[in-house]
Design a protein that fits this description.
2 helices; single chain; 86 residues; three-stranded antiparallel sheet; TATA-Binding Protein
């Protein structure tokens, strides 16, 4: 693979990002490897061409955002909120 990029994302929730991301992003034109620490998730992308690298970056960033948003729903639903009558 000729092109590569590393994306570091802060780990906000106790989620196994490796399990969530790795199942979708391995193609004939790109590869993904993920390492997690307690505070960050490092995602290394390798691709055979620039278009595949950009597509992989976009997909991984969107999926990471979605994972964080879904995890936040559980946190927000446990907070007590007052209903607003309109």
């Amino acid at each position: 693979m000729d092109y590569s990029a590393v994306i570091n994302v802060p780990k906000k929730h106790k989620i196994n990002y490796t399990e969530k991301l790795k199942q979708q992003y391995h193609t004939s034109r790109s590869r993904i490897s993920i390492t997690e620490s307690q505070k960050t998730v490092s995602i290394r992308l390798e691709a055979s061409d620039m278009v595949a690298l950009i597509a992989s970056c976009n997909s991984v960033l969107k999926e990471t955002k979605l994972i964080n948003e879904i995890a936040s729903i559980g946190l927000n639903s446990t907070k007590k909120t007052k209903s607003k009558n309109i």
